[in-house]
Amino acid sequence: MALGTTMPTHRVTFKDGATTLGTGTVSAGSATFTTSALAVGTRSLTAAYAGDANNNASTSATLSQVVSKANSTATVTSS
Q1: Which of 33, 30, 28 has its CA nearest to residue 14?
Q2: Among 15, 23, 38, 42, which has the minimal tally of Cβ within 10 Å of its Cβ?
Q3: Which residues are within 8 A (CB) of 14 and not within 5 positions of it... i.e. 6 or more apart?
């Protein structure tokens, strides 16, 4: 980080196409968001920062992520 600049503040919005997945708070220059709700298929993910008094708004490049169906386990007990 260059001397005299300030770290971004506030929140980053994470999207799958036009659908907002959630937000993450900026901390030490980055934001994290975790979800288990992505539909199976190829997802188009972006992160958008709205900007603040010292930093311009910005949107990431699109990340194409393939989501596969998770294996499931069932347990049957007889009594």
Answers
A1: 33
A2: 42
A3: 20, 21, 22, 23, 24, 33, 35, 45, 46, 47, 48
